[in-house]
Amino acid sequence: MNAKKTLGALIAENRKQKGLTQLDLAAQLGVTDKAVSKWERDLACPDINTLPALADALGLTLDELMQGRSEKQPGKTPGALAGTILKAVALAMGVAVAALSALGALTPQQAMPLLGLGLACLAAHALQSE
To answer: What parts of the sequence cross the membrane (predicted)?
Structure first.
């Protein structure tokens, strides 16, 4: 998980990654560069009506912007691969049980440990995501 940043720090970081100046971003949003400067220094917050356009201009989701996290930055989410693996194992267990049961190759007693493993992976992923 990425460390939570202030809204201002997230705006500044993502603006710079996009190669935009404060003036460029301000022009896209229909505000002044002084407003962008205040946001980045956490002296003011963007108007609620500006947030969707701001998130779009920075290449973030509105959720990422509001939570102060940018999940799209490569190398910044060490648990992302583990989370993907946990979800994949859970899905694989569910598909395996469904397919093998449909083929008559799996009894309910044999299916329980597989489903238990899948549920354990989902639980581990949920705990990791918090």
So the answer is: 79-104
